[in-house]
Amino acid sequence: MDSSILKALKMPEFTISADGALVKSILDGEVFTLNADALEIVRFLDEYKDRFFSDIPLQNSPDIRQAWEPARLQQITILLLTPANGLEPGRLKAAAKESLLSWIEKNPFLTGLHYQSAMECGLRIPVFFYGLKLLDNLSDEDVGRVLRTIYEHAWWVARRLSLYTSLGNHTVCECVGLVFAGCLFRDRPEGKAWLEKGIEILRQELHHQILGDGGPAEQSLAYHRFVLDLYWLAAGFLEKNGLFDCSDWKPRLLRGESFLNAFAGGGGQFPSIGDSDDGKAVAPGIAPVRSAAQDNREGCTTFRESGYTVVRFGNDGILAFDHGPLGMPPLFNHGHADALSITLSAGGRQVLADPGTYRYNGDPLFRRYFKGTRAHNTVTIDGEDQAVQETGFVWSKPYRAELTRGEDAAGTLLLEARHDGYRRLKYPVEHRRTIIFFGDSHFVIRDTFLGAGAHDFELNYHLHPDIAAKRENGWWRLGEGKAVTFIRVLKGLDFDFSSGQEEPPFGWFSPAYGAKVKSEVLSCRKRGPSAETSFLTAISLGEPLSPEAYLERAGVL
Question: In three state form, how does the secondary structure of 392-427 look?
Answer without folding.
Answer: CCCEECCCCEEEEEEEEECCEEEEEEEECHHHHCCC
